[in-house]
Write a structure and sequence with these properties.
By secondary structure, this protein is of the alpha/beta class. It contains 18 helices and 19 strands. The chain folds into two domains: about 5-95, Ubiquitin-like (UB roll) (Roll); about 210-580, Rossmann fold (3-Layer(aba) Sandwich). It is globular, with a radius of gyration of 25 Å. It has a five-stranded mixed sheet, sandwiched between helices. Strands 11-10-13-14 form a four-stranded parallel sheet, sandwiched between helices. Helix 8 packs across helix 10 (about 325-340) and helix 8 crosses helix 14.
């Protein structure tokens, strides 16, 4: 790629060709404000906050969509530029609620930050404000169109990254509303509940369905035995919302914080992740031996499962019947754990801390009651747990580390790497290889499936049998292998598909902002934790072995099938549910 030279604010800047003025300014160390721009995804050029002066141009130009050219002279901080930006912000704010003190994004709102940056203390344009109903139809995401600033970031990520098209602009002009087509609600839209829209929203127009008050109430109820499970990615991200830099492993401090919040037991979803590998690994081996439907596609991501239910329902027989690890844990908590501890399952309240908003939807699926009670009672996102820790006044950085509790807190490195793209595949291969060959792997790191790339493929030789695998993250990337399966153009045996870019570490419930840099740092933390663990293979988890011996029997056996496996739902492309069929 060639280079070009331009002048920005009197400074000569050399940048690669095909960059925009916005990108070139970043190279020069100049921060041009934006509201609609999404790095690595899109620039809609609709907010007009990023305008600049270009020598020779008749009017101000939007820097996020204007290509830099050789010899161009740009000014980013003239009186006209500042006045234009301030005017745009005042117009946006004039149709925005003035409830910053009670808003969940207070202190982490891009509109608020820009108002402060440009010294906006009053609004000239007092006129009509939008008065629209909130959409609280979903158990995962709440949409408040009154706070929407029409930046279209949610539209961009839903269409360009996820290829779901659940959000679109409806109507025109002042009456424009961003939401499902025909102003439908989320529960009746083809929405996967992945929460990537929440992650990129600059304000609070989209937010997770908050259940912190429900959890506080359960913790205060003396009749409830309240237990919590923590997803693998949480340990690499919870610190970010509590004043710590991205990518720090804070497993011990997280456990201590949860104990101090009042949870009776702090367990680890990684235990259920190890269990998932045993069940899913045996399911793969069974299909390989019996000529079952291949490729087998993992079922660990609720957003991905809802995606295939909507868009590729004919391929549902390829999806593993294993429940999501969160739900496996809940089913065992209200059966195995209840029996072991002598507690009535009706008195056990199971809380999950998850990086996905889709986990909230998952817990509400009607089939997730195999114990006779809901497997999981409440799902907190990483952000919600951070909120509770702050409310409790805990100095997270200074908390002494503690370990997860027995027996459902014992896990392996294989369970930990579920939090990174390729982690489920790698964990499964570690176990499948050793189960088939009855020998130890010399190197248990399957680097071909690691990394943040959208699509990865590998061939694994297992005792002379070549297993073809594929790994994708981000729902747009999922379409590639699915289309190949539909056309009969692939010889895959095993596929990992995850809904969110980067997998759990980039989930829709993670701290804001989440970008490529933070995803990579979180992934690094996940693999550091894996390498630091004594046991790194799921089938070597002593508590999982004890679970089978004492309670479950054999993998894929009757009790395992009853508690740990499920079915999937055929959904139309216009409504959320039609009918339920066996997987």
């Amino acid at each position: 790629m060639g280079m070009l030279t331009l002048i920005i604010d009197g400074n000569k800047v050399q940048v690669p060709k095909e960059l925009t003025i916005l990108d070139a300014a970043h190279v020069a160390g100049i921060d041009i404000p934006t509201l609609c721009h999404l790095e690595d995804i899109s620039s809609a050029g609709v907010c007009r906050v990023c305008v600049v002066e270009i020598e020779g141009a008749k009017s101000l130009q939007t820097s996020c969509v204007t290509p830099a050219t050789d010899g161009m002279v740009v000014k980013t901080n003239t009186p006209a530029v500042r006045e234009a930006r301030k005017g745009v912000l005042e117009l946006i704010i004039s149709n925005h609620p003035y409830d910053c003190l009670t808003c969940e994004r207070n202190g982490n709102c891009e509109l608020q930050a820009l108002a402060k940056r440009f010294g906006i203390c009053s609004i000239k344009y007092e006129g009509e404000k939008s008065k629209l109903p909130k959409d609280s139809s979903s158990s995962a995401i709440v949409r408040d169109p009154n706070k929407c600033i029409l930046c279209r970031r949610c539209v961009s990520v839903c269409q360009e990254t996820q290829s779901v098209f659940a959000l679109v602009p409806n109507n025109r002009g002042f009456n424009t509303v961003i939401g499902p087509a025909f102003n439908n609600d989320l529960m009746n839209a083809v929405c996967t509940m992945c929460g990537q829209c929440v992650l990129v929203c600059p304000v609070r127009a989209l937010v997770e369905h908050d259940v912190t008050e429900d959890v506080w109430a359960a913790l205060a109820d003396p009749t409830k035995h309240v237990i919590v499970q923590t997803a693998p990615a949480i340990r690499a991200s919870i610190g970010e919302g509590l004043g710590m830099p991205p990518g720090l492993r804070v497993t011990g401090q997280m456990v201590t914080a949860l104990k101090r919040l009042g949870f009776d037991k702090v367990f680890d979803t990684d235990f259920a992740a190890d269990l998932t590998i045993i069940e899913e690994g045996h399911e793969l081996l069974q299909r390989l031996k019996t000529g079952g439907i291949l490729p087998l596609i993992i079922s660990c991501s609720p957003g991905w499962v809802k995606f295939i239910e909507h868009f590729f329902p004919d391929l549902l027989p390829h999806v593993s019947t294993c429940k999501f690890p969160q739900q496996m844990f809940g089913a065992l908590a209200k059966t195995y754990y209840a029996e072991k501890m002598g507690i009535d399952p009706k008195d056990i309240y199971v809380v999950s801390v998850m990086p996905y908003t889709a986990k909230k939807f998952e817990a509400q699926r009607p089939e997730m009651i195999s114990s006779g009670y809901p497997d999981v009672d409440a799902v907190l996102t990483t952000r919600e747990l951070g909120k509770m820790i702050r409310e409790a006044g805990l100095d997270f950085k200074s908390l002494p580390p503690q370990e997860h509790d027995d027996p459902l807190g014992i896990s392996t490195g294989a369970g930990v790497i579920f939090g990174a793209s390729g982690g489920v595949m790698e964990a499964a291969l570690r176990t499948v290889y050793e189960v088939v060959t009855d020998s130890e792997l010399e190197n248990i790191d399957f680097k071909d499936v690691q990394g943040i790339e959208g699509c990865k493929e590998a061939q694994i030789d297992i005792n002379g049998t070549v297993v073809n695998v594929a790994v994708t993250n981000g729902l747009k990337n999922a379409r590639q292998p699915l289309k190949r399966i539909t056309k009969g153009e692939t010889n895959y045996h095993f596929i990992e598909i995850m809904a969110c870019p980067g997998e759990c570490i980039g989930g829709g419930g993670q701290p804001i902002p989440t970008n490529t840099e933070t995803r990579l740092k979180r992934i690094s933390a996940i693999y550091e934790e894996d390498k630091s663990m004594t046991i790194r293979e799921s089938h070597l988890n002593s508590q999982v072995r004890a679970l089978y011996e004492e309670f479950l029997g054999d993998p894929l056996g009757g009790k395992s099938h009853e508690l740990l496996h499920t079915h999937h739902t055929l959904r139309s492309k216009t409504r959320s549910d039609l009918c339920t069929v066996p997987a």
